[in-house]
Write a structure and sequence with these properties.
single chain, about 200 residues, 2 domains
């Protein structure tokens, strides 16, 4: 974690510290961090954590094989993903002590990467044909985000205005970043088919 020019290492305390990997994915304005810890290379069985005021708290979705928090607004508002007993990845929202599953319609995978204070979610999903698309979700409605002439699109972050940053793979196999001024395209009322320029 980098704060005010100083780096701090975050290591989840485990029974096998030499073989435990700690990844940080998201940070709140207050400096709370969420991420995942796992042993060896077994990411799919990882445990989510919240690191706040020097203390670790596990964040595991009920019944999940593995849990992967990706962004945090405050300790009571966390979003992320989990690997279920059905061998599928699902998104989740943890709000005020309750986990809610987020699965986009007609998808085989949903991965939430971020949330803004307005509660708009961003991430990516795989459609039934295996193609990867970015998305923005607002009040249980979602906008699919596909960069023109790309083979896959991923949403990574969203600001309070609804603008989205992410990456996409062009048809020549190269990865690029994009910025989508999504506040204008969704007007807080998402619709299908937004296209970054």
């Amino acid at each position: 974690m980098l704060s005010k020019g100083a780096f701090a290492t975050i290591n989840f305390p485990g029974s096998d510290p030499a073989n435990t990997t700690t990844l940080g994915f998201g940070i709140s304005n207050a400096g709370d961090v969420v991420g995942v810890e796992f042993v060896g290379g077994d990411f799919s069985h990882g445990h989510g954590y919240l690191y706040s005021h020097g203390q670790f708290v596990l964040v595991d979705a009920p019944g999940a094989v593995g849990t992967f928090p990706t962004m945090i607004i405050n300790p009571h508002y966390i979003v992320g993903n989990y690997f279920g007993a059905d061998n599928l990845f699902h998104g989740f929202v943890f709000l005020n002590g309750k986990f809610s599953t987020v699965d986009l319609p007609n998808s085989s995978l949903t991965w939430i990467t971020g949330v803004n204070p307005e509660g708009e979610l961003v991430g990516f999903y795989n459609s039934k044909d295996g193609a990867q698309h970015g998305f923005v979700m607002n009040e249980e409605k979602f906008t699919s985000v596909d960069v023109p002439s790309s083979s896959s699109t991923e949403g990574n972050g969203i600001d309070p205005q609804g603008d989205v940053v992410g990456r996409y793979v062009s048809l020549d196999g190269k990865t690029h970043a994009y910025l989508l001024r999504c506040s204008a395209c969704i007007d807080r009322k998402p619709h299908e088919g937004s296209k970054p320029k």
